[in-house]
Write a structure and sequence with these properties.
Layout: H1 13-24, E1 30-31, H2 36-39, E2 49-53, H3 54-58, H4 61-74, E3 77-84, H5 94-100, H6 102-107, E4 111-115, E5 118-119, E6 139-140, H7 155-178, H8 182-197, H9 210-227
Parallel strand pairs: 1-2, 2-3, 3-4
Antiparallel strand pairs: 5-6
Length: about 230
Amino acid sequence: LSQSTEQEPPRGEGAVHLLSLLKGAGLTTFTTALDLALINGPLDPYVDVRCWSVSFVLGSGLANQKARADCEKSGDRLWYYGSGSYQGQEGSMLPNRWITGCGLWISGAEGGWSWTFLRPKDDAFNDFDGEGHREAKDAMIVYPTEGDGPPLPTTQWEGIRHGANDFRYLYTARAAASRLTGDAGRRAQEELDRLTAEMPWSVRPADVDSETLDAWRERAARLIVRCR
């Protein structure tokens, strides 16, 4: 058919078809679609987890409220993506630690998704040979080794690991505080609330460094011990 007579399929038709098949098979479905008209329209019956860009969930308190309200209205679970090997994250621990740790804690999201564990474009160690790919950039949280050896770790991988541990301390502190009753429980929860209130709404806060994150983790750990 010529370009003038060929009809394009309805927007999102392929995604609707695929997710409907997965949903019909009893699987939990997940999408990173950001088009509200699409995700609140034909995709909505077939989506369980809405995974927004990190800027929609951590960019500001208002953006976070909108993302949460959207998921509450649709009955879907809230995730976000944005850690890993995006520009400015490779070779850096701090942004990955923040996004997967304290940032995840204040976001209210159920989970975070990182892009991308190991996706080389030709030579994984050459960022200038990807012209033949739709996206030229290598996406590497870790790097491959020859044969069956374990992947090579990176600072971005270590940042993600540290962030996960930060979140675990905060989660454990909340669980410990919730088991207390009376004034002890109230004081423990107030202390955790004060700690949480110090964490700013930002994808990459300028005034948060590794020492600050270490101090917040220590306060969470001390709270866990006191609750016991």
